[in-house]
Amino acid sequence: MKKQFLLILAFVTLLHSAIAADNTNGRIVVYFATKVNIVAKPYEIMANDSLVARIRNNSFAEYTCKPGSYNIRITNAPTANTSINVVAGKSYFVQIMTMPGFWKPQPIFMQVDSISGNNIIKNYGVEKLDKDFSPFPRAARRFSVSVISGAGFTDKPIVYLNNGDEATISAGGGVGIGLKYGYEINRFFDLSFEYNYHYSMLMPNVKNANVSFSNSSIAITPSLIIPYADGDVTRFRLGAGIDKYFGENLNLKTSQLAGGLDHKFNYTSNIGTHINFVYETNLTKTWSMNLELIYHNINFDFKPSVPGEQVDPNFNKMDGSGIDLNIGVSYHF
Q: What H or E segment, with its residue span, contains residue 168?
């Protein structure tokens, strides 16, 4: 019985001390409520000359302080500056807002009452930062869709025009679509698997003739992640991998031209290689936009569909190497 009494007495004493300590301090809450990612680097919040928080998109931090006068500002942002006279036992809310800037949004401060501040934090789902202001965990998996525009290294002449020019086709250029599944092993390494479809056409276009070269490929790409700032919003990936191509064919529909024909020639290939560089930025917590520059190296060899089938010797090999620019969106989950 005596031990239980002593435990209760100790608990009450600690509780009283905690309440008393809380009543002798004030609290400043700085928050940035946003449904979309506006800034790539966190805002460094200073109270007088001390760093008290690094505020990220849709986040807040609490600063417990002694009563007194405090100048709250954002490093290197003269537009975000306010003064607060802290009284013991009271809470003060500072909202970060942005206005258009020449290169990037400019932050500004607005002091709000505690009821409004708490409601905004709750309604926007603003997340509380830990004591180290670390980035929030990012979903490891993503699914991406991209459109492809490419330029091949080799052009093959198909049609000779009356003005002496040539209409050519490149097996390494054209347009296409890509589907990708990616997995971030950790904050610095990534592995992705993708399917791409390429389709190139006769350039320039020729009346009464339709020529195309198409192929599909699957690829695997391990990459090094290069974070911008701490990579919370924006990051780069540098990778290299291998490709397996299939469905390679040259489709000629030139029978309406002198000496032309309508025929589909099939091709085959070995394993290809590629190097890519990706820029990715999160628009929201689950959606991102990415730009990818990729160099791919592959050659296609003519493969007779029936015994005795032949192709012009100039088309026995097709160079599928080139550089692509992929623009896509990703869903992170």
A: strand 166-169
> So what's the architecture of 25-128 in CATH?
Sandwich (2.60)
The token pair at 236 is: 């780069």
* Count of alpha carbons within 13 angstroms of residue 70, beta-carbon side: 23
Radius of gyration in angstroms for the set of CA atoms belonging to the chain, rounded to a whole number: 31
**pLDDT reading at 20 higher than 50:** no
Instruction: State pLDDT tens for residues 295-332.
Output: 999 999 999 988 888 888 889 999 999 999 999 999 99
In this predicted structure, the answer to whether residue 181 has a pLDDT above a threshold of 80 is yes
pLDDT tens readout for residues 92-105: 999 999 998 888 89
Residue ranges, CATH 2.40.160.20, the chain: 141-332
**Does residue 15 register a pLDDT over 60?**
no
91-99, strands of its sheet edge to edge: 106-112, 91-99, 26-32, 59-65, 127-128
* Secondary structure E strands in 33-140: 43-47, 50-55, 59-65, 68-74, 77-86, 91-99, 106-112, 127-128
In tens, the pLDDT along 262-288 reads: 999 999 998 999 999 999 999 998 999
Distance CA 101, CA 105 (A): 5
- Strand 26-32 relative to strand 43-47: parallel, antiparallel, unpaired? unpaired
DSSP 117: H
Contact 276, 264 (CB under 8 A): no
What DSSP assignment string belongs to 317-331?
Answer: EEE--EEEEEEEEEE
Asked if 79 and 69 count as a contact pair (C-beta separation under 8 A), the reply is: no
- List where CATH 2.60.40 sits in the chain: 25-128
CATH number of 141-332: 2.40.160.20
